């Protein structure tokens, strides 16, 4: 390798970007949407009552409903209502081992009458599992996150004039404009990009590098998990039937001990056994870290058995980095900044992929370049279209039909598959304006089906969709004009 | 693209060395650095394992970039192997077995 340091870093940036670009684009886009996953979940459940929710009362209603309807379940996991998600999100294990996830009405504790949907959870899971079986999706996501770290650092190294180019954008210059846009978007939010990609890898580190824990925990890897998060520690069922204590005083006691941090989750283990446990986790008001404080109560007597305040420095570093990534701590302003920076990162990746083909198609090129160009349309315009169709499917599928949550997700991948096929068989200069126009209409339709625009969730969803609709429309117009100029 | 495009046998060999050092080599370095830290540091098990994992997460991207930054591909490969063998030795010394 005779090239200079910078040339080899440029080669690495380009090669790694090409290999991981499409996966990273899908991860970045779904991650950006996940910033508002609670709000998306709420938008997707228009049947939910709109009155303000009492966190503790709503949780008690959910527990009462589960006591009647899922008493034999080994565990109930409840995410308590927040002002963004005004319902209890329950996950419980069926005795067979499979899991049920449902939104529970904050006034009655019942899932009846609320349409079955994954809501924003779909984007959140897709962001790190890519709809692939465990553990492959997570491993690909973890490696892609580290590849993004390398791509960002090498990108910074090869960027010659960071300060001067910060004020440079030369539109209507083809390749030059794409490079300017790529650089500008990359530099503006560079610290965010680097933070989010590294902390993204941190959230999956126990899967990517399990060898250290295996060396010290040997066969007892479960001890490693409970050491890391004492809140998941349970005790075996006694076999004797028991009666769950009233959860109201337990939750009030927990809220008092958390001193304003709020409650985020409640886990109830072996609810109908004499050895039941109630574990309550503190919320994120006033702390970036996840898992900072938890309490475990005896489920039959309601007495406090164990209190865990996270003080171990390395574990705190981990929960801090984890919390920084999933951003549960954020007030609304910060959340919008996460969203905007995430969009910028998505655009950096997309413009990088586009730049790769723009640069090569001007010169003598081969089939690989043409295929990349076409697949670019299928991914860069196909992914937003597929994600938009998820929102539309939520409103268009009959609200109470069977398996509708699965059908919503299938809709995403059918649309995406068709988009890829369509992009593959036709020239990219035609499919760009066509697909972008379809995206614009799809986003406009989301704004339309958000009606009646009576609460902040439907209003902001409609506004964001209208913004995207305009942006895609403008991009389609530019793609069409660019084509006219070329021919 | 000057480096990848021209593939004389010598350059192809050089590139193979770098890719081996960067991908499996970098991962193995991260894994064994994590194991060594988890075994050799004092303190709680969970803390040692966590420090090992987080440092491992830094080592892979750094090794990856260094594999392509250093001027001689064979040096890259040799250096990675030496570091890896040293870490494996340290791990075995403290009772690690495959």
TrEMBL record, chain A:
Is Magnesium among the key words of this record?
no
Q: Does the keyword RNA-binding apply?
A: no
What keywords does the record list, in alphabetical order? Membrane, Transmembrane, Transmembrane helix
Give the transmembrane ranges.
12-36, 139-163, 184-209, 336-356, 377-397, 409-428, 460-477
InterPro entries on file: PepSY-ass_TM
Q: What is this protein identified as?
A: Membrane protein
Species source reads Gluconobacter japonicus
